[in-house]
Amino acid sequence: MPRLSRNGARCRISGRDIIHRWEGNPIITVEDIPFRCNSVFNAASTMCDGEYILLLRVEDLRGRSVFALARSDDGYHFSVEPEPVMEPSDVEPFKTYEKRGIEDPRITEIDGIYHIMYTAYSEYGPCLALATTLDFKTFTRFGIISEPDNKDGVLFPKKIGGRYARLDRPHSALGNMWLSYSDDLRMWGDSRVVMTGCGGRWDCDRIGASAPPIETPEGWLEIYHGVKMTSGGPVYRLGVALLDLEDPSIVLVRSAIPILSPREYYERIGDVGNVVFSCGTIAHGHNGNLMVYYGAGDTCICVGTTSVEELICRCMESDALDQAA
Ligand code: BMA
């Protein structure tokens, strides 16, 4: 039965997952990559000059990840450029910290500049790194912007209280989501914890920001991933929360249930099975949908759709049911 959210949006209550998989999934597999590689997954997404852009994490045959670029007119059918657009740097100071690959990019556009926050991997552990581009042809590395051990860095699409803001996950073993601020994108601080895993639930063992937050009148809509350890290994699912617009360390509502869980064969079986992991969305994509791009089984890329209103509605509904329980 349709319900209304606070802003009056209609909410559809159907199906097991709130994100509706596209029937043509997976949209990009290793067969679509023009150069030899092991797998493709966890792509950042954005629009540039009316085109859908995916920055793909491609794992080469040695097991190191690089970034490749895919373009599309409709958000479903992509063609991949013949060569990687970013590889682990051979120039210091990046070289030392990218030796084991570059992973899980997230793109945030601010004032026409596309900021790519990614994980730089080395023997010292994962660090956050930042690169920028204006056109997805030339990429400029900005710097390593965290100490190890940090992952899942996503930049907010505008300054908050005059400062840049990011979500990240310092200390993987603890697996909590944090917020930090910066005046110049280089030095980050004033850090505070935002969300932790919920005991016994689908996201109890580790959480991390997935896509860059989307600004809505209700708050920052954040799609995040949560991990539950099982006797068969970890299961990665997607969830959603609304953060306060002025102070995103305040969680306004948080869905007690996931919005996407691994169910299809391409999500269950892969280099790492039982994984759905998103690094990007397009808020007003095809037919006005929220398009959620996600890596499945660390082996291919898929897309699912929903709407911002439906996610807000389901988030509020689930939170309310949870409070009442
Ligand atoms: C996380 C990241 C992701 C990966 C996921 C599942 O820690 O490394 O890149 O998709 O694990 O293996």
Task: Explain how this protein is built.
It is a single chain. The chain has 325 residues and is mainly β. The protein has one domain: Tachylectin-2, Chain A (5 Propeller), CATH 2.115.10. Helices cover 8% and strands 46% of the residues. It contains three helices and 23 strands. The strands form six sheets. Strands 16, 17, 18, 19 and 20 form a five-stranded antiparallel beta sheet that branches. It has a four-stranded antiparallel beta sheet with strand order 3-23-22-21. Strand 13 and strand 14 (177-182) form a beta hairpin. The longest helix is centred in the C-terminal third of the chain and has 17 residues, at 308-324. It is globular, with a radius of gyration of 18 Å. Mean pLDDT is 94; it is low at 1-14. Bound molecules: beta-D-mannopyranose. Beta-D-mannopyranose (BMA) binds at residues 42, 103-104, 236, 272, 275, 277, 295, 298.
Topology of this protein?
Blueprint: E1 3-4, E2 10-11, E3 20-21, E4 39-48, E5 51-59, E6 65-72, E7 79-80, H1 94-98, E8 101-110, E9 113-122, E10 125-133, E11 139-144, E12 150-155, E13 164-170, E14 177-182, E15 189-195, E16 206-209, E17 214-216, E18 219-230, E19 233-243, E20 251-254, H2 265-268, E21 276-282, E22 290-296, E23 300-306, H3 308-324
Antiparallel strand pairs: 1-2, 3-23, 4-5, 5-6, 6-7, 8-9, 9-10, 10-11, 12-13, 13-14, 14-15, 16-18, 17-18, 18-19, 19-20, 21-22, 22-23
The protein binds beta-D-mannopyranose.
